[in-house]
């Protein structure tokens, strides 16, 4: 973990009215980042909002790191107003990472909406750092509607097998991304060795975890949580341990958990 | 001018500087040991320890508020046995004072935990949490009744090997009365304030934001309340005080000392800037130089006037 007093915005894109892509320069942080890591960024110098915001790393290349986020509240709104060359106080990289697929396994990424960044980073990491065959990745991205398609710009450039679902059926499979997985792939892949990786809304990951457990397929979930500190001391980001009356800290023991470890 | 003296002695124990970390905001020290140099602090106060391990409340447990936060963690901790076995060995390696915070639901539970800690080295003081607002009516029983506060303090003072700090709640009619009861019961020191009871509501779903419905409010939002309580208690007792409540920087430290605190604890600020305590310790040295004070203990209880600054130019007061 690096306590980094300054990272600098070097690129900014607005993908949708409420979806932003920022690229930061910050070598000490970027050079250590692996998929599923996150940063705690202070979006305001004052007390409004008072806490840092935990943000997934969308990609890191050694010198720079990127984040893609939806504006959902005051913190992300302020971050969306960031200007080129603006500096932010940022702690990271924080958290654990995904287990690598074993030999001969297909890596199935199941992303719900703006939960895709850690899975994008992981897919790219597998291909670029581990020479993982692109055709052995399957990326499923669930969106609300076709107009959200710009969120997949970077994914499309990766040139990996990629399928979409939309809640309203306006693009790709009609239904949730978990339905897409269950209807089209769960059975088809039954005789293949697969490993599922997921990030998205809790309800989606809960359902996916159930499907994975019923098919006895290894499945890892990247979680989020209310995270005032991000370094393991406030105990705010608690997630229930499955079958035990105790909690993990998403920021310390996670954010990646095996589906059978947690109760969402 | 030589470097000002930042060290403070209370209850026969010398602290490198007046800066401690507040219970529940610093774990058992392990996480922060990777981020900051703990030997730069006066001491650390551990998460509350109870007789039995406690998983804590289901989430949501925290809620960000205007200049503060609500929390209802529910005294999640490993329990005293595991604390002694797994956490004390690490705490012993640290070059700073160790204060163990003890919580409970009955005099018997507090007594059990204190007796277990009596058998353990590597502790400098105990802070008795009689005021956690997040564990039902029981948790406030000792902090809101003069008689019960006195009974608990007397019982623990009889058995404790270590000096006792009683941590007071602001959620009472008269904090001065409770403070006097603890002093008469034999408390060596008082720390205040614990969090203020508060709550958050979702105006769309009509649901409480915290699973526990109410939680404890902390952060800069409560600093003016905390200053007033420390000042009231300073005027009511003779034992030393530890000021807590929204402290973010060295100016806040000075303000709490001026109203009567000998030491202070940083709480919520640790979540925002993990190095806030170290920076504040550095800032205090500059502050003393600016004010011409050679020993930080000269600040304690000096509300009313600083004759040192007469005729000098000072920047505007930067309190948060």
In brief:
Chain A is of the alpha/beta class and 264 residues long. Chain A has two domains: 2-94, Translation factors (Elongation Factor Tu (Ef-tu), domain 3, Beta Barrel); 106-222, Nucleotide-binding domain of ferredoxin-NADP reductase (FNR) module (Rossmann fold), CATH 3.40.50.80.
Structure description:
- The complex is a heterodimer of chains A (264) and B (320).
- Chain A has 264 residues and is α/β, with parallel strands linked by helices.
- Chain A folds into 2 domains: 2-94, Elongation Factor Tu (Ef-tu), domain 3; 106-222, Nucleotide-binding domain of ferredoxin-NADP reductase (FNR) module (Rossmann fold, 3-Layer(aba) Sandwich), CATH 3.40.50.80.
- Chain A contains 7 helices and 17 strands.
- In chain A, helix 5 (177-186) packs parallel to helix 6.
- Chain A starts with a strand and ends with a strand.
- Chain B is of the alpha/beta class and 320 residues long.
- Chain B has a single domain (8-309), classed as Aldolase class I (TIM Barrel).
- Chain B has helices spanning 30-33, 80-92, 107-118, 136-144, 146-159, 175-184, 223-234, 250-258, 269-272, 276-291; strands spanning 8-10, 13-15, 19-21, 43-45, 62-65, 68-71, 97-102, 125-129, 164-167, 189-192, 196-199, 214-218, 241-244, 263-266.
- An 8-stranded parallel β-barrel of chain B has the order 3-4-7-8-9-10-13-14, surrounded by 6 helices.
- In chain B, helix 4 crosses helix 5, helix 5 packs parallel to helix 6 and helix 8 packs across helix 10 (276-291).
- Chain B is globular.
- At the A-B interface, strand 14 of A face strand 5, strand 6 and helix 9 of B.
